[in-house]
Write a structure and sequence with these properties.
10 helices, binds zinc ion, 38% helix, 2 domains, globular, DNA polymerase, domain 1, 7 strands, alpha/beta, TIM Barrel
Length: 312
């Protein structure tokens, strides 16, 4: 969706009934990719946990962009609700000129080189916000930084949606869609590339923190099957151990094929909705079912199994 600056739209839901699969049978109640107001989500971490609980989820991860800031609040809420929360985040990286997202599932939180890595990610996001502001001022949005900050309503690094809202509020465009189409979307003046670290670096940070690196939504980078294979090869060579087999809604045949690509590389399969806001394409826990596959689910990973067992 356009409002969500870092994701392309998910495929439409696949209605065909998948076959049962023993290893992924425990999947209901799991969502390991969601966002809160700590990054670009609409719900506070506590409100998100409440919604997860209402929707019958039992094992979840909060994976805000480049920050663990929402985790403490989510953890408190999850404990009260009887939900198991695995601390997590979603790191932006670059590989062959593409912005690739890596989810870090972090049972021990931020440790080792991840700590300095998060500081440099925050600096990159702040610098990017300032550059977007400079460009938007040239396009007629006076005081762009302050106006976007007011729209954000918090001190988190600014992103393109904040500037889009500011343009709407100033009457420069009629809605956010127009703001992206004319000024902030891919290839437009406000589409500022941040200097993200290489894919291999962010995988190292996650491993250094005792976490598990998960390649986020491998079907959403617009890659051919062959190029996706190369991405998975690079990710695996860097020490990545898992990828999202299902991200929101996707076609069952495509999922089966992706499962083969992950299996060939010995990767674990993860599941997540990539939920950002109520009323959007997905809700917490909403995603396509997992077709029959020999792939190992991420909750069997040795570094995560204990946490998931507690919840069972
Ligand atoms: Zn993402
Ligand atoms: Zn995400």
């Amino acid at each position: 969706m356009l409002m969500n600056e870092t994701h392309v739209p998910p495929a439409t839901a696949d209605a065909s009934a998948p076959q049962a699969n023993s290893a992924f049978d425990e999947a209901p109640g799991i969502d390991l990719h969601m966002h809160s107001t700590a990054s670009d989500g609409a719900l506070s971490p506590a409100a998100l946990m409440k919604l997860c609980h209402e929707r019958g989820l039992s094992r979840v991860s909060l994976t805000d962009h480049d920050t663990l800031d929402g985790v403490a609040e989510a953890q408190d809420a999850a404990a009260t609700l009887g939900l198991t929360l695995l601390p997590g985040l979603e790191l932006s990286s670059q590989w062959q000129g593409l912005n690739i997202h890596v989810v870090g599932l972090l049972p021990e939180g931020a440790q080792g080189s991840l700590v300095a890595g998060l500081e440099s990610q925050a600096r990159a996001r702040i610098a990017r916000g300032e550059e977007i502001a400079r460009r938007m001022e040239k396009l007629g949005l006076d005081d762009a930084l302050a106006k976007a900050r007011a729209q954000a309503g918090s001190e988190r690094p600014l992103g393109r949606p904040d500037f889009a809202r500011a343009m709407v509020a100033d009457g420069l465009v009629k809605d956010m869609g127009t703001a992206f189409k004319k000024y902030l979307g891919s290839g437009k003046r406000g589409d500022v590339k941040a200097g993200w670290p290489y894919l291999s670096e962010v995988v190292e940070w996650i491993n250094d923190a005792g976490g598990v690196a998960v390649l986020a939504h491998p079907l959403r980078y617009g890659l051919t099957r062959r190029k996706r294979g190369l991405l998975l090869d690079a990710f695996t060579a860097a020490g990545g151990e898992a990828a999202e087999l299902v991200s929101g809604f996707q076609n069952a045949d495509v999922t089966r094929d992706l499962a083969r690509q992950l299996d060939e590389r010995g990767l674990y399969g993860s599941l997540g909705s990539d939920f950002h806001f109520p009323g959007g394409p997905v809700a917490p826990g909403s995603m396509s079912a997992v077709p029959r596959t020999a792939l190992r689910p991420i909750w069997q990973h040795p570094r995560l199994a204990a946490i998931f067992a507690e919840a069972a």
